[in-house]
Write a structure and sequence with these properties.
Elements: E1 2-8, H1 24-39, E2 46-49, H2 53-66, E3 72-74, H3 83-88, H4 101-116, H5 128-144, E4 151-156, H6 158-168, H7 173-182, E5 188-194, E6 197-205
Helix pairs in contact: 1-2, 5-6, 6-7
Length: 217
């Protein structure tokens, strides 16, 4: 069996002028995960990240802490969906969403339901269907490129991780939304695959984090 470790990036900089970068806590999360993987004996053949800054920073932090010799590979197929575009297309905004993470989450979920309905596709550069297809293709590509018995680490974002899990569980939008809501920064989802197909063994495992380091935004 081969293994893919799908990791959500560390905490980003919510409420600042540049969300797409790790906060100091996010850097800590990436490094402690790298140390955890080193102690667990993980030796990935490949380390891949989406092309977003927070994803690349997390992956490099893991590589450095784990003392792996891997060069980081970039695959934009693992990028997160454009949450700003999805929210901006929603007809009812919330001024508190820019600084209040709970208000942001409520608005994101309502706007995501509109996005996923398929009734307003002209309002989005990437529809929900196109987003999920892109992630399906990135997963299949990563698995196809990995040899038998080898492992890979992929760093992405919560919406992506939640969709991969939803796909493997044969779920739909409601399940995706529920999983997306609880994905922890630097959480690890383990997928094994072989002749019998792909199986999710764990979702969102975050035992490497001290309790006070657990974040969702």
């Amino acid at each position: 069996m081969s293994v893919l470790y799908l990791i959500r990036h560390g905490q980003a900089s919510f409420g600042t002028d540049d969300y797409d970068r790790l906060s100091p806590r996010g850097l800590d999360q990436s490094q402690v995960l790298g140390t955890h993987l080193l102690r667990a004996g993980a030796t990935p053949a490949r380390v891949v990240a989406g092309d977003m800054k927070r994803q690349r920073q997390t992956a490099q932090g893991i590589i450095d802490a784990a003392d792996w010799s891997n060069n980081l590979e970039i695959d934009p197929g693992w990028d997160e969906f454009n949450a700003t575009e999805v929210i901006d297309a929603y007809p009812e905004g919330d001024p508190n969403a820019k600084s209040d993470s709970r208000a942001f989450q409520r608005l994101l979920e309502k706007s995501s339901a509109r996005w996923a309905s398929g009734e307003h596709d002209a309002d989005y550069r990437e529809t929900f269907t196109a987003f999920t297809r892109r992630i399906d293709e990135a997963l299949d590509r990563s698995i196809a490129d990995l040899g038998s018995g080898k492992s890979a680490v992929v760093v992405s974002s919560s919406g992506v991780v939640a969709w991969v899990a939803t796909r493997l569980l044969n779920g739909g939008f409601d399940q995706w939304l529920a999983l997306n809501r609880v994905t922890v920064n630097s959480g690890v989802t383990k997928i094994v695959f072989g002749a019998s197909g792909k199986t999710m063994v764990t979702y969102n495992e975050h035992g490497h984090l001290p309790h006070s380091w657990i974040t969702y935004r």
